[in-house]
Design goal:
By secondary structure, this protein is an alpha/beta fold. It has a single domain, classed as Trna Endonuclease, Chain: A, domain 1. The chain is built from 4 helices and 8 strands. The chain has a 6-stranded mixed beta sheet with strand order 1-4-5-6-7-8, sandwiched between helices. It has a two-stranded antiparallel ribbon with strand order 2-3. α2 links the parallel β5 and β6. The longest helix has 22 residues. The radius of gyration is 14 Å and the shape is globular. The N and C termini lie far apart (29 Å).
Length: 138
Amino acid sequence: MPALDIFHEALRKALVKDGWTITNNPLFLRVDDEPFYIDFGAAKLIIAEKVDRKIAVELKSFIGSSYTSDFHLAVGQFVNYRVVLRTIQPERILYLAVPQDTYAEYLGRRFPQTVIADQKLKLIVFDVSKAEIVLWIE
């Protein structure tokens, strides 16, 4: 099993504060003989809609030597995970979770925003120090 990201606990707390129940930590999936570990599986009962919403969340800290390299890896992993989820658990919606500082310093720029829109990435932006979600980007 892969190592936990340094912001793993802060994101877990942020999801719980936002009303999500962590159902899997990590969410383990297998396609043929290939294992996949997505950081979190979570669910939330939406009373008004009488529906149980399920998500999968992959966390990326962007603490490597290059935001661009980290972004390339994150997008590639996101695309692969999205394909796996569509095959095995199509009811789950995949989100990429990133720290608020990373979003402000890099992901808000024109090129990352173009890729995010083109690839239809869904984002969760969270405040690491407060362990709170500050933005859902659909």
